[in-house]
Amino acid sequence: MAFGFCIGVALLLSLWSRAETAGIPDGVLRMECHDRYFMIAVDPSFTGDEPHFEAVDETGAYAITRQYAAQCGYSINVHPLPGHVELRASYFSCQTQNKDDEMFTFNFNLNVTQEGKEVTYPLNKTCSPSLPWSPREVTCETNYMEVSVRSEVTCPSGTKKDDWNSLKPAHRSTTSDWQVMFQTDDVQLPPMNISDARKQGYVFLLTEGRLVFRAPYGQPDSFSTEVNGVPVEAVHATIFSRQSWVVLMVDFVAACSMDEGLYHESGYMMWETPEMLYPNLDGQQVNVGLKGELVAQPVAEERGYIVGKQNNTIQICIPENAEGRYRKSAVDEDLYEFYVYHLYLEQILVDEDRVETRIRFLRTLATPLLPSPIFAENQTVLEENMFTVYLGDVPEDVQPVVLQQFSKTDAVLHYILNINYTLTVLPEKDLYYHMESVVALVTDVSPPQFDAVCTESGISFKLDHRPFDYLWEITIDSDLLTSELADQHGYIMSNDSNIQEHILEGIFGTFEIIMRDLETSEVQGSTIKTCLFSTTELIMCSTDGRMTVVADLALAIPNGNPARTNLRDKYCGPKETDGSRALFSFSLNSCGSAIKLNSENVIYQNEIFYSKKFLRPGKVVSDNATERVTMQCTYPLSGLHRLFSVYRFESDAAGIGSLLHTTHPAAGLQNPTIQPTSAYNHALQPRYNHLLQPRLLQPRLLQPRLLPQDELQYHTSLPSTLLLAMSK
């Protein structure tokens, strides 16, 4: 198997900024917005099997315990397969900031212990539902039931919307007129006020456009039953308030299938829910999927699912090898396997008025231990006087026990196979067992070497996999190169590889990949590649105080000779020229450069001049015109610690360069009116700096931004700007 990645070169016209996920620790695997919930997945090796989350709002931070999670719309689930802990939060969870039921902002703290100290990582995300809200929606989570209904209902004449708003203070006032009445089976319980119900773990919430009711499973006022042989838990709550002679009443019903699933020997995981959990509603559509993905029934059936009805029960049959399932081998005297499915199911029902109800189920299903037999194939050839036997159907997470030992002293890899021989002593036929170790040596064990190729957009690296490559780690500078690193959008790491030489045809860029000892991190090898990248225009401001410019003078001096140009000091001419471009490279404090200083930056500025008298026939320009190109390098004062203490320029970071094309009267050069020229062909203008940006992206070319002074400004820093793309 070959492993490769590509270093791509892209044009940078503004300073890089980190992505929104900056500061999120590596242990946080994903933060995702789904249609009706927000999800965070964390690595248990980073957090422990019981991570400590806090939900945060303007009133403080609240520890998400098991009880608090069920009451407030959170669920925390440990998934050994695929090996992460998952936090899900309802869009109506307690601490969520809700804007018009269209934008939901989640704020959490993840508390972990690192090196004996408690460390808190804030995790924030804003989500917008991908689907419009139905008049009624029911969610059957793993630890609670939630119902939300549209609050814009038809009320008797004289009833005002403010009557509904009186539900808001009902959470805080023990004297509220709003009351709730629960019904179990056919028994109607005495009413209680909303605040008392909340103390018992129930939540009632009024948003901008919806009424929400939530109840943990196993509440005293809920009830369990069987419908068509399927276990069901249900809760029926009615809230009401007397407003003068009118009684306002809202009915909440949540009923959830508690089926744990059944594995069928035909190779399907089966799960059931009664079709008529909600009376007077007709089923219209079923959507199903795994890992939070929903697809329509026809699409699911194309993927091997079976969605059917039997005895007024909806049956979902998930194929054993469904995409998104997890598989694991296990040993219990013999070899077994089991499968885990994170089911996501949606039912869409309508009443006689075609008013829609959506019901969603989130369930984790697992098969029992299933036999996973391994067979042996005898390929012995008698003429060879030896046995040849192969093992077949070995699962992907099972391998024959061959030990590996690496000797650093000899640079030799030992493969060790322990064999237990069974011998028979004749004629008594007594059995004797003899253990022997067979060792095979691999002597050509050396650090991996990448094959590097220059491309139009960057440098491509490829590594052929060897079974012992795990003995080294691959780094860029001191940063470990992993697929997770490439997935972290906005993560920026420094690269000390630099641009070695500037010529008119372009830039020689060099990139280095380092191989380090896995245990000691000692450098044991590297792959270095230098490539020439062509460019139409560029400006570079080095850390050692040198400005390098390639300027396109095609429009500034049509039919002119770029070799006739000079800087402010007329003795500073170009290093190289061609038909339209000139290359200048000079020290910042030479060639007549002007220096400007403000509270934050020091600016070095110079100009390229070309006098009218050198124009060839055919150029039309006013008699007193002088064409020039202005370039400048800007350095932050904070990085110039030695500028005023020693006679040597040293900057912590490369400067920001800009090129400016102008036309001025020859006498009394005034503030210019800038005209950007068509010479800025950005598809041919890569810019390079020393920042390495690992992202799974193609190199992108950006357009220049027009500054308030109409200046086309290019931001660049040395030695190279590189985009890292990884593939396997």
UniProtKB/TrEMBL annotation:
<dbReference type="InterPro" id="IPR055356">
    <property type="entry name" value="ZP-N"/>
</dbReference>
<keyword id="KW-0732">Signal</keyword>
<dbReference type="Pfam" id="PF23344">
    <property type="entry name" value="ZP-N"/>
</dbReference>
<protein>
    <submittedName>
        <fullName>Zona pellucida sperm-binding protein 2</fullName>
    </submittedName>
</protein>
<feature type="signal peptide">
    <location>
        <begin position="1"/>
        <end position="21"/>
    </location>
</feature>
<dbReference type="InterPro" id="IPR001507">
    <property type="entry name" value="ZP_dom"/>
</dbReference>
<feature type="domain" description="ZP">
    <location>
        <begin position="540"/>
        <end position="728"/>
    </location>
</feature>
<dbReference type="Pfam" id="PF26562">
    <property type="entry name" value="Ig-like"/>
</dbReference>
<dbReference type="InterPro" id="IPR058876">
    <property type="entry name" value="Ig-like_ZP"/>
</dbReference>
